[in-house]
Amino acid sequence: MKKKIALAPLLMPVVPLAGAEAFKFDTSYQTYDESGGRMFVESYYYRGEIFLSEETSFRFQFLRDAISGSTPNGVLPENQQKALPGAKQPFLTPIDDVRQGVLAALSQQIGDHRVELELSNSRESDYLSQGISLSDKWELNQKNTTVSFGLNYLNDTIVVRGIDDQNKRSYDLFFGLSQLLDKNTVLSANLTLGYAEGYLNDQYKSIQRDELVGVFPVTSSYRENRPSSRLRGVLQFQGTHYFEKTKSALDAVVRLAQDDYGVFSQSLQLEWRQSLFGKWEITPFFRYYQQSAADFFHNSLNEVNIATPQIYPDGSGPNYSADYRLSSMATMSLGLKARYRFTENIAASVTYEHYDMSGIGSDQAPAASYATASMCTFGLNFQF
After folding, report:
1. Segment 332-339 mean pLDDT
2. What is the pLDDT of residue 7?
3. For residue 303, what are the domain limits?
4. Going by C-beta distance under 8 Å and a sequence separation of 6 or more, which residues neighbour residue 221?
5. What's the pLDDT tens digit per position in 212-257?
6. Given phi > 0 = left and psi -120 to 50 = alpha, else beta, which region is 203?
7. Other CB atoms within 10 A of residue 330 CB
8. 169 close to 200: Cβ distance less than 8 angstroms
9. 373 with 11: CB under 8 angstroms?
10. Is the backbone of residue 69 left (phi > 0), alpha (psi -120 to 50) or beta?
11. Which end of the chain, N or C, is less packed with Cβ atoms under 10 Å?
12. What 3-state class would DSSP assign to 7?
């Protein structure tokens, strides 16, 4: 939900439209670097918005992610495997890929309504995602109240080794309410209901089972088998207050989510935006996230009552996955963003964030699965 400009100029610096026309553009470069040389991602973003008239605008985004390194594949660490000499399976799987995406959106003001149609396309070597969404923002009560609602549809095609390409479809319905309490305070609440169906497995994740080959105990590996559908709900509350005396703003977000996998999550995000010397904006931020494990999360198939796992699972039961992202875990981020405005129309920013993930409770993955990472972002913003 976009914040009201009336809240405070600090929160969203905007240049007045010249002749009812303006152009915004920003570009950023981001790195994500996991400790131990595990995963490294370079991202390039190019975003812009063209105001065609007072009622019509066109928004676009291009992105490119270059991914390299390795990631846990779901098998147990080597010291927990039973295997013949030289037959232990690697705990990490190498990854080297490039993702390119494009998004285009046309927005039209119709009375008190702002209607937007958005199209998106994202492509990797083994994954294609195409999306369309339609949303509406309805301003009421002299623009002090905003009601938002919309629909989103994604159609994904996944390349899976050994079988034909698989399909995944996702549907999202969202509703939001934003209320300006006074000139410095805004509260909002958003509800998203989502449903996905089709191939929901990660084709690179495995799960192991201890077995006997003849008289030798070995640890065999099988593909994971998630359900073929997923229903989820996300409820988010956000509050922002601008402090005039200190020229600062506090932004707080609480998010609760539940799905029929059995995963319940909650998160808290806090940001303090401080204006300094008329040119600088300094923003320290903190995020904490915690989730329970999926009902079908297991570290190995030793915990699952199944005779012979499918070679190419289709989502039918029993379901199982050793993906650490479905385990009981918590993450915490600490960061700092600095923004400097050179002129009324040009600004630059730099952000550093430290990210730490760990398992919690009894349904956690092996400790080596969880990552510690640092993220750096450099950005330029232009408004004309």
Report:
1. 98
2. 37
3. 5-383
4. 75, 89, 206, 207, 208
5. 877 777 888 899 999 999 999 999 999 999 999 999 999 999 999 9
6. alpha
7. 18
8. no
9. no
10. left
11. C
12. helix
Cross-strand pairs, 229: 197
Mean pLDDT of all residues in 49-69: 95
Q: How many CA atoms lie within 13 A of 158 on its CB side?
A: 16
Per-residue pLDDT at 84: 56
| End-to-end CA separation in angstroms for the chain | 24
- Give the whole-number percent of the chain exceeding pLDDT 70: 93
- Report the number of secondary-structure helices (H) and strands (E) in the chain: 0, 18
DSSP 8-class letter at 204: T
Q: What is the mean pLDDT of the chain?
A: 91
On the question of pLDDT at 201 being above 50, the answer is: yes
- Phi then psi for residue 217, to 5 deg, are -80, 130
- Which pTM was predicted? 0.89
Long-range own/partner contacts, residues 78-81 (CB < 8 A, 24 or more apart): 80/366, 81/208, 81/219
Report yes or no: 134 and 117 within 8 Å, Cβ to Cβ.
Answer: yes
Does the structure show a pLDDT above 90 at 75?
Answer: no
Across 6-25, average pLDDT? 48
Q: CA torsion, points 105, 111, 113, 116, in degrees to nearest 10?
A: -10
Q: Burial, 140: exposed, middle or buried (Cβ in 10 Å; 0-12, 13-18, 19+)?
A: exposed
Ordered DSSP codes for 64-76: EEEEEEEEE-SSP
Which residues are registered as beta bridge partners of 105?
A: 59, 118
Domain count, the chain: 1
Beta bridge partners of 121: 102, 130
The Cα-based distances of 288 to 85, 106, 266 in angstroms read 43, 34, 8
Residue owning tokens 């050179």: 342
3-class DSSP state of 303: helix
DSSP letter string over 14-40? -PPPBTTBEEEEEEEEEEEEEGGG-EE
Q: With beta carbons less than 8 A apart as the criterion, state whether 234 and 223 touch.
A: no
Nearest CA to 157 out of 124, 195, 196, 129 is that of: 129
Residue 346 has pLDDT above 60, yes or no: yes
